[in-house]
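Private note to self, pasted from the team thread so I don't lose it. Backbone tokens:
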């Protein structure tokens, strides 16, 4: 991937976030034109939500450079000729271009669809769907949150029963069950949340911080669907 122009930018400071970012403009490998994106060079993370949402200036993830003419994301450095041909079939399809035109579809959701079309292992991109939920931040539950959460739940439930996993797939499955517990709890489905956190706890071998699991179980038992940070565990429980 040949970088045509690299500029250093200091992003302006807002009450929500700020950070140092590197602007990247490159040739788009699909179609014509340029792909524009940024590389986060510095940020501050103050805390973590129970959904692993990083809290702090500039901690929000950024997508790969996006081709302005067709919406393709340059997610790796080199593409083979066969990959280019296959990607062109999808990127210029009506299905993908409809996603590009839809302002309510996030960059990460579109990127996940590209990975899915290329038939990459689902564990390579399952977290891209979850990033969609981060835009809600600390906001209380809403119908829009629940709608997005239900979509992610549908994807993640399929992962728990799929055979398309890496040989050593227990660790990511612990995280997936934990995230399902969080999503079910936030949407008020406490019985399903209890099932998922029980599985995560039973199969967790120091892969996931036990504080997360313990606090999650406590909130589920209390039928509490609010957003919390992990550090709030002690003040809530005590």
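Design output:
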């Amino acid at each position: 991937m040949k970088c045509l122009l690299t500029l250093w930018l200091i992003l302006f400071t807002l009450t929500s976030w700020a950070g140092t970012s590197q602007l990247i403009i490159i040739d788009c490998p699909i179609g014509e034109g340029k792909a524009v994106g940024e590389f986060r060079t510095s940020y501050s993370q103050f805390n973590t939500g129970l959904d692993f949402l990083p809290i702090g200036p500039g901690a929000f993830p950024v997508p790969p450079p996006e081709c302005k003419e067709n919406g393709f994301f340059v997610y790796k450095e080199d593409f083979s000729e066969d990959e280019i041909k296959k990607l062109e079939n999808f990127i210029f399809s009506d299905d993908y271009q409809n996603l590009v035109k839809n302002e309510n579809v996030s960059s990460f959701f579109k990127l996940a669809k590209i990975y899915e079309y290329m038939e990459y292992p689902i564990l390579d991109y399952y977290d891209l769907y979850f990033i969609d939920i981060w835009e809600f931040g600390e906001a209380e539950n809403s119908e829009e949150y629940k709608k997005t959460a239900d979509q992610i739940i549908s994807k993640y439930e399929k992962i728990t029963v799929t055979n398309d996993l890496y040989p050593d797939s227990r660790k990511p499955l612990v995280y997936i069950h934990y995230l399902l517990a969080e999503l079910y709890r936030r949407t008020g489905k406490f019985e399903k949340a209890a099932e998922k956190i029980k599985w995560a706890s039973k199969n967790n071998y120091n892969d996931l911080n036990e504080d997360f699991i313990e606090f999650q179980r406590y909130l589920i038992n209390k039928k509490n669907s609010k957003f919390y940070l992990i550090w709030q565990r002690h003040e809530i429980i005590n």
